[in-house]
Amino acid sequence: MCQGRTAEAEQLVDVARAGAPPDSRPAQARWRSLLAAVHAARGHTGDAVRLATHADRLLRPTDLLPLRADILIDLASALAARQDTAKATQAAENALALYTQKGNIVAAQRARNTCVALTRRTQASS
Predict the structure, then answer these.
(1) How far apart, in whole angstroms, are the C-alpha atoms of residue 120 and residue 110?
(2) Is the dihedral of CA 94, 96, 100, 102 positive or negative?
(3) In 10 A of CB 54, how many CB atoms?
(4) pTM for the model
(5) What is the pLDDT along the chain (126 residues), one digit of tens a residue?
(6) Domain residues of the chain, as ranges?
(7) Do residues 78 and 58 touch, judged by C-beta distance below 8 A?
(8) Residue range 6-125, CATH number
(9) Residue 72: which of 60, 83, 61 has the closest Cα?
């Protein structure tokens, strides 16, 4: 998230939250995931992980694999911000599997890059 733009991002999340139908799993998951990014940018990593995890749980029973993969990448980012690289790597690997299953090669490559970066981070801290 761009430095100094978290307040603006949070306002956009508020709009998304207000417009999200309560019974829409995708809309409810998306605003939580976006808010998780705001919290992570502010250093509130516990809140970020909690929100991203909730977003993932909302989408698990659906067949919205690309959106779920996007949410898992957001979860990986929140976990990485919390220095939990093992769980972050697992979330990114799960996203990679979903992108690959759907044939989204561009997003799969981004997820692969995330996995590599997290693996390097883990090795550097060992």
Answers:
(1) 15
(2) positive
(3) 16
(4) 0.89
(5) 545 688 898 999 999 999 999 999 999 999 999 999 999 999 999 999 999 999 999 999 999 999 999 999 999 999 999 999 999 999 999 999 999 999 999 999 999 999 999 988 878 876
(6) 6-125
(7) no
(8) 1.25.40.10
(9) 60
